[in-house]
Design goal:
The chain is an all-alpha fold. Helix content is 69%, strand content 0%. The protein has five helices and no strands.
């Protein structure tokens, strides 16, 4: 349903500030994704996945013996969040806001992970993975994308999803 409220006229700040907001939004999104990951694991009993750590280890040429799986997992999640979230900030800066924009961004975030994981030789094509693995991955990328998207929209365009400005 269309709203009678005017669309925000312009971004708050300049392009560089928007990119900086994206870095912060990425950190907040990764934090939210990590929290929901641990909550999901409590509910499902699913163990930790070391696919992200193996991906970073393979791509960086870290030998199997010198790898610390949890450290590489954190490195992968944080670096992917900080690399991709500025793209969502640029989307907001250019007027692409709201849940629809976050959904589009989720596809970019998911693609970035899948391309790296597949090319690092860690996983087969994502559509061949078990349905539970696909569902869990989509859930966590959804959380990351929508939390970081909300932060970008709010900070860059002043858009509120909830409350009096929604």
């Amino acid at each position: 349903m269309a709203s009678n409220r005017p669309y925000p006229q312009g971004p708050n700040g300049n392009f560089g500030q928007a990119v900086a907001v994206g870095l912060g939004a990425g950190a907040i999104g990764v934090t939210a994704m990590t929290i929901t990951n641990k909550l999901e694991q409590l509910v499902t009993g699913r163990p930790n996945s070391y696919v992200p750590g193996h991906t970073s280890g393979n791509l960086l040429g870290v030998s199997q013996r010198s790898r610390t799986p949890d450290g590489l997992n954190h490195f992968h999640h944080w670096s992917m969040g900080l690399i991709t979230a500025p793209v969502r900030a640029i989307m907001a800066y250019n007027g692409m806001t709201g849940p629809y924009a976050s959904f589009i961004f989720m596809a970019l975030r998911l693609t970035a992970d899948e391309v790296l994981e597949y090319n690092a030789g860690v996983v087969p094509p994502p559509w061949t993975l078990p349905i539970l693995d696909q569902t869990v991955d989509l859930l966590h990328k959804f959380v990351f994308s929508f939390v970081s998207g909300y932060v970008c929209d709010r900070m860059i365009r002043g858009v509120r999803y909830f409350g009096s400005d929604a």
